[in-house]
Amino acid sequence: MSSIYQKIGKRVREERKLRNLSMVELGERAKLVASFISQIERGDRKLSVASLEKIAIALGLAPWELIKDVPAKSSVSPESSIALLLKNQPAHRKMLILKTLKFIFRNLRGV
């Protein structure tokens, strides 16, 4: 398969993992099957503009962000990564995470 599909697939995988999503979860959000997501990530499958758009929206991105050359990990700040991880958590879990972070920061002051 063409290297453009491999680059897009790599980008999809990076963005999916950054959001802590499984292929099944991404597939459900994009209304695509997990095996199709897997083939895209490996660069084994050509994807249509419609599929690219579905995947991008499911990841909270614009479609062009999946085809740009900048690697995903270098373009995302730690703050954005934390926000992405929290985004899909229920309110009670967010509160637990907040309490945990406050506890950690209180105890790190002397370190």
Describe the structure.
With 111 residues, the chain is mostly helical. The protein has two domains: 1-75, 434 Repressor (Amino-terminal Domain) (Orthogonal Bundle), CATH 1.10.260.40; 77-111, no CATH class. Helix content is 68%, strand content 0%. The protein has seven helices and no strands. The protein has helices spanning 3-18, 23-30, 34-42, 49-58, 72-75, 78-87, 91-108. Helix 2 (23-30) crosses helix 3 (34-42). The longest helix is centred in the C-terminal third of the chain and has 18 residues, at 91-108. The protein is elongated. Residues 70-74 have low confidence and may be disordered.
Sum up the structure in keywords:
434 Repressor (Amino-terminal Domain), 68% helix, 7 helices, mainly alpha, 111 residues
